[in-house]
Amino acid sequence: MSRTEIATAAAPAAIGPYSQAIDAGCFIFCSGQLGVDPATGDLVQGIEAQTERALTNLVAVLAAAGLTTADVVKVNVFIADLANFAAMNAIYAKYFEAPEPARSTVQVAALPKAAMVEIEAIARKAS
Questions:
Q1: Which domains does the chain have, with CATH numbers?
Q2: Cα–Cα distance between 4 and 11 in angstroms, integer?
Q3: What residues contact residue 98 under an 8 Å CB cut-off, 6+ apart?
Q4: What is the DSSP string of 6-51?
Q5: CA–CA separation, 105 and 51 (whole Å)
């Protein structure tokens, strides 16, 4: 199996030893995106703004692979406080149409840059 890096300046550069995404044949594995503005490197403020920015970043990574959110089959959401679940969901729902991808949402103790949310995805390329 070959692995090809997917990278775009339209999403924040990796802040560690990982790729924005990997093309693994039939699937694209997108690393978690934070609510970081790629132009400034700064984390936006508030759960709604961070969710919106994280999803915008994810859309940019998918676009670099020639895909859209319609190609996403699985999403993992890491959230620092489940009290923000409804607010995150309200923004998230704008990015995915039925049938929505499978999803897990997990409260975590902390995220990089003290972010409130991180969103990663797996997308399937058309056969």
A1: 4-124 (3.30.1330.40)
A2: 17
A3: none
A4: E--TTSPPPSSSS-SEEE-SSEEEEEEE-SB-TTT-PBPSSHHHHH
A5: 13
Q: How many other β-carbons are positioned within 10 Å of the β-carbon of residue 16?
A: 6
Give CA–CA dist 20/120, Å, rounded: 10
Instruction: Give me the helices (H) in the chain, please.
Output: 47-64, 85-92
Three-state SS for 58?
helix
Summarised one tens digit per residue, pLDDT across range 23-60 is 999 999 999 999 999 999 999 999 999 999 999 999 99
**Does residue 117 contact residue 54 with C-beta atoms inside 8 Å?**
yes
Two tokens, residue 75? 């999403």
User: What's the pLDDT at 127?
Assistant: 64
Tokens representing 14? Answer: 């990796």
Find out whether 83 and 112 touch, Cβ atoms under 8 Å.
no
